[in-house]
Amino acid sequence: MHFNTFALLSATAVLAAVNEPCIGSGGRAGVCLSTSSCASSGGVTTTGACPADAADIKCCTKASCENTSAGNCRWQSDCGGTSVSGQCPGPAQMKCCSSAATGFGGYKAPAFPAVGACQAVAVNGAKKVVAAWPGRVRQIYCTRDCSCPGTSDHCCGKAIDFMCSDAGGVPTMSGREIAEWVMNNRGTLNLKYVIWGQRIWNPSVDGVKAWTSWRAMEDRGDVTQNHWDHVHVSFN
């Protein structure tokens, strides 16, 4: 476990993904579940935190569990202590954490791509983000095996995926702070748009606001495609 103490994309409000993250009561890490599943696990639900989902799918959180007196339910990637299974609502990666401390990051500095296929604006932007959030980015991806312009800014080397959880496909809450920092530093980054947690922000159409008010995106089917394990940043 790693830790320390401290082209315009369309966005449509359709069903969010069950068993994927949400932010519930008190800013706690939660999981989108049916109200019955949440109740049977001893959790409480928050309405409106799973965008445009069915009426019985809500953000489920559980403030306390039995892994020490500080036990709380959160995504394992974000636990600054030991994690215990079987006490929390949602999938296996939602576990009872022994620590109340913030558990984001603790990673070694990632390698940066060379300027070439990955454009200088993306490499320079990646370095600025990592410098602002030391220990919080585990790995960096820039290009994909596709021809420019393709269907993604990765095809032209003008996008960076900042992996910020313990592994690909592992959810985290860490990306929110990074994504909002990118929004707030859009000028120095030459930002085109930023995506995290199934929401998108674009400086040409959106005002500065908290991530919870960013435009919702469609469910793409899994944690990685819905950007719950990494922050996507596209550059001009």
Strand and helix layout:
Layout: E1 21-23, E2 29-34, H1 35-40, E3 44-46, E4 57-61, E5 72-75, E6 83-84, E7 94-97, H2 120-132, E8 139-141, E9 159-163, H3 175-184, H4 186-189, E10 191-196, E11 199-201, E12 215-216, E13 230-235
How many domains? The number is 2
Helix content: 10-25%
- The Rg value, from CA coordinates, equals 18 Å
Give the helix/strand class.
Answer: alpha+beta
The largest sheet, given as strand count, sense and whether it forms a barrel, is:
6 strands, antiparallel
The number of helical runs is 4
Which stretches are poorly predicted, pLDDT < 50 over at least 5 residues? 1-15
How far apart lie the N and C ends? 36 Å
Q: What share of residues are in beta strands?
A: 15-25%
| Overall body shape | globular
Strand order of the largest sheet: 8-9-13-10-11-12
DSSP E strands, number = 13
Order of SSEs? EEHEEEEEHEEHHEEEE
Pfam families: VldE
InterPro entries: ARB_07466-like_C
Signal peptide: 1-16
Domain ARB-07466-like C-terminal: 116-228
Structural write-up:
Residues 116-228 form the ARB-07466-like C-terminal domain. It contains 4 helices and 13 strands. It has 236 residues and is an alpha+beta fold. It folds into 2 domains: 21-97, no CATH class; 120-235, no CATH class. A 6-stranded antiparallel sheet has the order 8-9-13-10-11-12. Strands 1-2-4-3 form a 4-stranded antiparallel sheet. A hairpin with a 2-residue loop joins strand 10 (191-196) and strand 11. The longest helix is centred in the middle third of the chain and has 13 residues, at 120-132. It starts with 20 loop residues before the first strand and ends with a strand. Mean pLDDT is 90; it is low at 1-15.
